[in-house]
Automatic annotation (TrEMBL):
Role, per record: Required for the transposition of the insertion element.
GO molecular function terms attached to this record: DNA binding; transposase activity
Stated name of the protein: Mutator family transposase
Homology family: Belongs to the transposase mutator family.
UniProt-listed GO biological process terms: DNA transposition
Cross-referenced NCBIfam families: transpos_IS256 (NF033543)
Protein source organism: Pseudonocardia dioxanivorans (strain ATCC 55486 / DSM 44775 / JCM 13855 / CB1190)
Region of interest called Disordered, as start-end residue ranges on this chain: 59-80
Skewed-composition ranges (Basic and acidic residues): 59-69
InterPro entries: Transposase_mutator
């Protein structure tokens, strides 16, 4: 019988115990944890230099001081000092060299002055609304490192290719609901003007918020027209979206016609929240609370007939004082009433403010911090960085609602045969 020899298990490092030993040793020697001469700086220096030495050994084919390297052609040729910016601040390291200069390190590449983690910090800070000047000040204050505004701009420019890929990525075959919203951004084009940027948000069959893309409008008042919207929606359709059940929008010229051209079965629904919000524009702030209270029976009515009756009461109460509000609702009525045919769970999805308003709040915070943008591309880059920060996968997806199953069932019944949930969801 042949004995089998079990391989020896590889030693495992207890990282917590190791870290505790390092901290205790540092304290015993009076060494600070952070700072230029701190434990973390020294540890980072050691790890980087050790990794670079290992890379050079692999490149040459022998370890340091190995006799195999004698008279073997290329060999080690000392080191050069280099300072790199890391997540804990500037770290000075010794980079090993070889005689024929063929060594191309990967841990810290030639001419690289920042570790990759620094770029992610810059992108994260920019997405949170900090200007290039504020990001530079942050690095000076927190890391004691000088990072120029031009360097920060170059770092953020690296996402432009990523933005193009994201804007052209494949999409789901069907979305129960599509929201089309507008943001106004100040862009300098000869002179500073308000430019509309349109964000299209889908609710997936799995109850996720999917930001499909961001498009820059041409006019200052959002009056692009049917041709513009058909181009945008055709682009979305060509990326794989074969069906949309409900498209929610807010009085954008030419959009309803473009929606039904792209997806003939789609129901165009005016945004009830925007309709209510626009109502307040015509009224004194002191009446907002009462207006909201009197409008609620209209948009929560069980049927269109009941809504008509409640609206007649509303018009009788407020028509004399605010005739423009009555005209607003009557003009939007044909695109408002489809809402009344839906199950309460579908109404909740259409009226859900959190998923959209939280996104808009992040966009507006980043926009406000900059005042205005020099180009359309700069504005798109800013909005994309915010989108990117919401989803670690970079796809712009987050959860729409915790209680999605009741809504999914309501959609599946109302739009029979068109809603198919993915496996395992």
């Amino acid at each position: 019988m042949t004995d089998t020899i079990e391989p020896m298990p590889r030693a495992r490092i207890d990282h917590q115990q190791f870290a505790q030993q390092l901290v205790e040793a540092a304290k015993a020697d009076g060494v600070e944890l952070v700072g230029p001469d701190g434990l973390l700086t020294g540890l980072t220096k050691t790890v980087l230099e050790t990794a670079l030495e290992a890379e050079l050994s692999e490149h040459l084919g022998y370890d340091r001081h190995d006799p195999a390297g004698r008279d073997g052609g290329n060999s080690r040729n000392g080191t050069r000092t280099k300072t790199v910016l890391t997540e804990i601040g500037p770290v000075e390291i010794e980079v090993p060299r070889d005689r024929d200069a063929s060594f191309e390190p990967q841990i810290v590449r030639k001419r690289q002055r920042r570790l990759d983690g620094i770029d992610e910090i810059v992108l994260s800070l920019t997405a949170r609304g900090l200007t290039t000047g504020e990001v530079a000040a942050h690095f000076a204050e927190v890391y004691g490192a000088k990072v120029s505004k031009d360097t920060i701009s170059r770092i953020t420019d690296k996402v432009l290719d990523e933005l193009g890929e994201w804007q052209n990525r494949p999409l789901d075959a069907v979305y129960p609901v599509l929201f089309i919203d507008a943001l106004y951004v100040k862009v300098r084009d000869g002179q500073v003007t308000n430019r509309p940027f349109y964000v299209v948000i889908g609710v997936t069959v799995d109850g996720q918020r999917d930001i499909l893309g961001i498009w820059a409008g041409e006019g200052g008042t959002g009056g692009e027209g049917a041709k513009f919207w058909l181009q945008v929606l055709t682009e979305i359709k060509n990326r794989g979206v074969g069906d949309v059940c409900i498209a929610v929008c807010d009085g954008l010229k030419g959009l309803p016609e473009a929606i039904t051209t792209a997806w003939p079965q789609a129901v165009v629904q005016t945004c009830v929240l925007h309709l209510i919000r626009n109502t307040f524009r015509y009224a004194s702030r002191r009446y907002w609370e009462q207006l909201a209270k009197d409008l609620r029976p209209v948009y929560t009515a069980p049927t269109e007939a009941a809504a008509q009756a409640r609206f007649a009461e509303f018009a009788e109460t407020w028509g004399g004082q605010y005739p423009a509000i009555i005209a607003l609702w009557r003009a939007a009525w044909s695109e408002f009433v489809p809402f009344l045919d839906y199950d309460v769970e579908i109404r909740k999805v259409i009226c859900s403010t959190n998923a959209i308003e939280s996104l808009n709040a992040r966009y507006r915070r980043a926009i406000k911090a900059r005042g205005h943008f020099p180009t359309e591309q700069a504005a798109l880059k800013c909005l994309y960085l915010v989108t990117r920060s919401l989803d670690p996968t970079g796809k712009g997806r987050t959860r729409w609602a915790m209680r999605w199953k009741p809504a999914l069932n309501a959609f599946a019944i109302t739009f029979a045969g068109r809603i198919v949930p993915s496996n395992g969801n």
